């Protein structure tokens, strides 16, 4: 299955189950992806989370029901997954700007979020610098934290984790330990298939035993797509990820191998416009 086709299948699955409670794992399975990779891909393509997309679509359909039938508001709330009319009314007003009772009288100002379609456009003006290399397995040592991909917990938790590590100078210790095949301090995403949890590591490649305060992780032998990242953090890293998802994956035959991926950081000034970093994606 192609990359775009997988995303479209997942969208079709969401649309077919808007009135049900479905998990991110079930949705991602339609795209043959892990929950983490699908959530990130979807967010980078649409600028909203999977949960927010489904919420907007449900409230769009609820508005159509509200203005096109005489269904009671309490029944409408239950139909679209809200426990009480009050919680439904609050969500409805947040999206549409008016209460359900007001919308029934005046539907002119309602907002409609239509079903998504994914279209790939070829953008060649700004080339991406990358290389494909194969490496044997290697060890990283560092700190590990589990995060959930539900409700964007990982999106807020990971930056806080980095702030903590930079603030207590653990990053300096990791730079000193770095003697492995990858140079720098690493952000490692280790996702679990069919699980809303992922392990995020702030680590470094190190050949010896892990110091007492650190854990170790074996990175399997892989074929890697290594992308250059130029510019200050965090924007340069985020922009490169967006181009990888929007342009690189759709335009070639490589697919994510499902094993841990790396962001590689140097000890240079993170605000420098000339800062060099890398993204390592295991591919097949």
UniProtKB/TrEMBL annotation:
Keywords: DNA-binding, Transcription, Transcription regulation. GO terms for molecular function: DNA-binding transcription factor activity; sequence-specific DNA binding. Pfam families: GyrI-like (PF06445), HTH_18 (PF12833). It comes from the Bacteria. Residues 8-106 form the HTH araC/xylS-type domain. This is AraC family transcriptional regulator. It comes from Priestia koreensis.
């Amino acid at each position: 299955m192609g990359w775009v086709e997988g995303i479209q299948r997942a969208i079709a699955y969401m649309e077919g189950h808007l009135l049900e409670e479905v998990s991110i794992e079930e949705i991602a399975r339609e795209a043959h992806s892990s929950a983490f990779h699908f959530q990130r891909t979807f967010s980078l393509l649409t600028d909203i989370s999977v949960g927010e997309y489904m919420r907007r679509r449900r409230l769009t359909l609820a508005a159509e029901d509200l203005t096109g039938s005489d269904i009671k508001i309490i029944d409408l709330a239950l139909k679209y997954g809200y426990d009480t009319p009050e919680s439904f009314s609050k969500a409805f007003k947040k999206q549409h700007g008016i209460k359900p009772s007001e919308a029934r009288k005046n539907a002119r100002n309602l907002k409609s979020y239509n079903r998504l379609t994914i279209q790939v456009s070829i953008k060649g003006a700004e080339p991406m610098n990358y290389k494909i290399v194969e490496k044997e397995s290697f060890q990283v040592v560092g700190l590990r934290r589990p995060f959930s991909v539900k409700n964007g917990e990982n999106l807020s938790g990971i930056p806080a984790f980095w702030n903590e590590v930079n603030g207590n100078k653990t990053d300096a210790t990791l730079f000193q330990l770095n003697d492995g095949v990858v140079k720098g301090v690493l952000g490692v995403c280790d996702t679990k298939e069919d699980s809303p949890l992922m392990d995020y590591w702030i680590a470094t490649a190190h050949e010896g035993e892990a110091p007492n305060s650190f854990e170790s992780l074996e990175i399997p032998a892989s074929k890697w797509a290594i992308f250059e990242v130029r510019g200050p953090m965090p924007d340069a890293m985020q922009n490169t990820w967006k181009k990888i998802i929007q342009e690189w994956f759709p335009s070639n035959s490589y697919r994510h191998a499902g094993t841990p991926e790396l962001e590689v950081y140097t000890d240079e000034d993170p605000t420098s416009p000339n800062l060099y970093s890398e993204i390592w994606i295991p591919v097949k």
